[in-house]
Amino acid sequence: MPTPTPYYTLLTAIGAAELVNAQASGVTVPLTHLAIGDGNGALPAFTEATATLAHEVHRVPVSSITADVDNPNWLVVEAVLPAAIGGWTAREVGLIGGVGAGGKLIAVGTFPATYKPVLAEGSARDLVVRMIVQVGNAAAVQLTVDPSVAVATNQSIANAIAAHEAKANPHPQYMRALDGAALLVAHVNTADPHTQYYNAARLAAHLSNKRAQRYYFASGM
Q1: CA distance 129 to 125
Q2: Out of 80, 92, 94, 206, which could bridge 35 as a Cys pair, Cβ 3.0 to 4.6 Å?
Q3: What 3-state class would DSSP assign to 97?
Q4: Sign of CA dihedral 155, 73, 13, 103
């Protein structure tokens, strides 16, 4: 029997109830933050009954939520810890959100021990925290982003580019080569594409009309 991995994520009872209620009532569950903890110095053990992290040290707005390519019911949640935040070791992560006032622990997970330095220690860097959560229906969740603090991660940028390139015509303000060729063919096949200019028939009619006018005035009619 394989040894269970020490790193995992799970929906809390609170989170499961939120999703069930959301699907039943036709609403979505806002997911707003990732909470980071140091586990009080050790890797914590979580159950569905967990309502808080062992020791939360920071909370950061979610940057992106996407469905896993291979499993659409896996939500890939990302957030960025900025360089100025740190001085502790991340060992636990919690997904925060909920209908109404929010602030509920929707999912929780253990995190490979990662020290987050600050510049005063001689080193500083952003840390991308990624959490994968399995849900019954990914459409029941809603990403809520504060644009003043959200940071785009590499994955969210890649997802945005992929969605853009997947569109049949991502730049409708420009003429595509295919559209230009179709317009040119339609123009060439039009019997009289330039009605603003004289063709033989219009020129003959114009000259005939001028001659008629000269005859009219010359004859005193």
Answers
A1: 13
A2: 94
A3: strand
A4: positive
Q: Which tokens hold the place of 148?
A: 């003043």
| Residue 82: closest CA among 20, 36, 140 | 36
Q: In 10 A of CB 93, how many CB atoms? A: 22
Tell the residue number behind the tokens 């590499």, with chain if given: 154
Residue type, position 68, single letter: D
**Residue among 148, 54, 127 at smallest CA distance from 85:** 127
Residue-level pLDDT at 33: 94
> Which two tokens mark 208?
């005939």
Distance CA 39, CA 118 (A): 19
Which pair of tokens denotes residue 213? 């006018």
What's the average pLDDT block by block, 10 residues per block, for the chain (221 residues)?
A: 72 92 85 95 94 96 86 87 93 93 93 92 88 76 52 52 67 67 73 74 71 55 51
Tokens of 57: 């040290």
**Rounded Cα–Cα distance for residues 153 and 157 (Å):** 6
Taking the complete model, does pTM exceed 0.70, yes or no?
A: no
Cβ neighbourhood burial of 155 (10 Å; 0-12, 13-18, 19+) = middle
What's the rounded Cα separation, in Å, for the pair 183 and 180?
Answer: 5
User: What gap in Å lies between CA 42 and CA 47, rounded to an integer?
Assistant: 16
